[in-house]
User: Fold this.
Amino acid sequence: MAMLKIDNLHVRVAGKEILKGLSLEVNPGEVHAIMGPNGAGKSTLGYVLAGREGYEVTQGRIEYDGRNLLELEPEARAAAGMFLAFQYPVEIPGVNNTYFLKAALNAQRKARGEVELDSMQFLKLVREKLAVLQLKEDLLNRAVNAGFSGGEKKRNEIFQMALLEPRLAILDETDSGLDIDALKMVADGVNAMRSANRAFVVITHYQRLLDYIVPDFVHVLADGRIVESGDASLALKLEEHGYAWIAQRQAPVEQRAGAA
Amino acid sequence: MDGLLGEFGSGDALARAESWRYSRHALRALEQLPFRNAAGNAQLPLALIERFDWPQTRGHRLVFVNGALAAAHSDAGTSGAIVETAADGAHTIRFRGKGTLHLVFANVASDAPSRWNTTLHIRVESGKVCVAEQHVGTEGADVLGALASEITLGDGAALQTATLGDLPGSASLARRTRISLGNGAVFDSTHALCGGRFQRFDIDADLAGAKAHLASRGVFALRGREHVDVHLDVRHAARDTTSDVLWRGVADARARGILHGAITVAPGADGADARLETKNLLLSPHAEIDAQPVLEIHADEVKASHGATVGALDERALFYLRSRGVPLAAARSLLIAGFCRAAFARIEATDLRGPFEALLDAHLPQNAEVA
Assistant:
């Protein structure tokens, strides 16, 4: 059974249809890359999966572990193993990073019927994960993302992912704004977590990240649906020919749709 | 003599004044109560004593019961303060050099609505002084307190104050502070105002000496029908004076908050640098916060900035927390607490943050409906 099954998804945001019949299946252990031009609906997909308000599903369905994902609140999706690394992590002044992460992890554990971690156990876990991402411990004593550089914010997202150990991680343009060292660090963090029972959906605009996180599948998202799927070599073709190449190939599809 | 309370109760003349614009109804409602003078010899319940009996301020404490200085509960022997009481009942507290003082104002219920009126003169002639001021009361205490203080800071003197207005829903407080700062004097104040039927804070500061500095930070966190009205009036009257005002307000249910911040730069006060920021959070469609920044500048070389916002919880931040697994109610509490704590971030004496954060945690609206 697929872990995630998106079928003919139509989503409207502020009255405008952004996703127009997107279908995608993700199995445990797989890494899917979703590429596409700006405005194709890549971030909308991430937000719909994570449960943000204001994203109206007008048609289609999403199943996660055989359940109707759209019925779950965002926190219930997180407890069920879903994680979204934000393209623009939110700054929350006044809320301590450690306090927030402990509250998040323990809320998830509680929701799953697992024992909550005490402060010592939590700190031990945090230190392990920090070391992997080469993040400084003082980051923990600061407010969530407040005053972080662009790179620190993205690494903090991956650090949170490492700590929360989701089963399905969606990375929304985690590579944007990163220099090559930070990019490698983020990729190392992701690769260290790849396993047979965990899946990744990596949303990116550029092929560069996929040099370091090699995907099993590459999908091209254009104008609200997936117009091309292939293996990792598809990303290289895109890099070579640009998204205009896809637009040309897409034209006959639209004609067919129009004729039907 | 009635002092501040007389003025407070002088009826329509006061209620018509512009500065009482947002508190007129609250004031008139209070005036309907048949107040009698509160008993200064009332017994303090143990539970109330426990709220102010901080181990670190023993020997530094003056306790006022219904406005009257209670010798039995006070011991300021090691505080550095010299305390004198004048014939008219006003207390003068003087510091020469270092000092730490914990002032407690306990409101104790009697069988009828009661009121008290106290005047303090605080003089810091030199050195660095820290004063914590705590207002507490027993549940159901239908007490209206009026506290006026005149604070004088000599040249180079520094006073740090921490005010905790932690009143039961039945008690009210009218608090007037007038501060005069000498050359290079520093007045650094933090407030946390919670509870109370009605709390009015008038803070008038006169930066009379060159290079004097004032910092005023504060939070009010209101529930139910609580009403807090803060009027700050900062006057830059000398060269190179600086002020930094940072307040946060949160109101839930039918609570009402007012933050009026006026900064005046007098002619000749060149080099003045004034900052005023107030941010406010409404958690219910029936709550109201009025934020009123006023800048009046009569000098040329001046830096001044002000900003005032009133808004709802940040939907993006709420979603971010929930997407990590934090349930909605807990996410809201985290954000509200974080919003308030930003006002305490600049408290230098970090051990002072504890009482503030504990007070806020106990009072922050927890499960409010989204506006």
About this structure: Chain A has a mean pLDDT of 91.
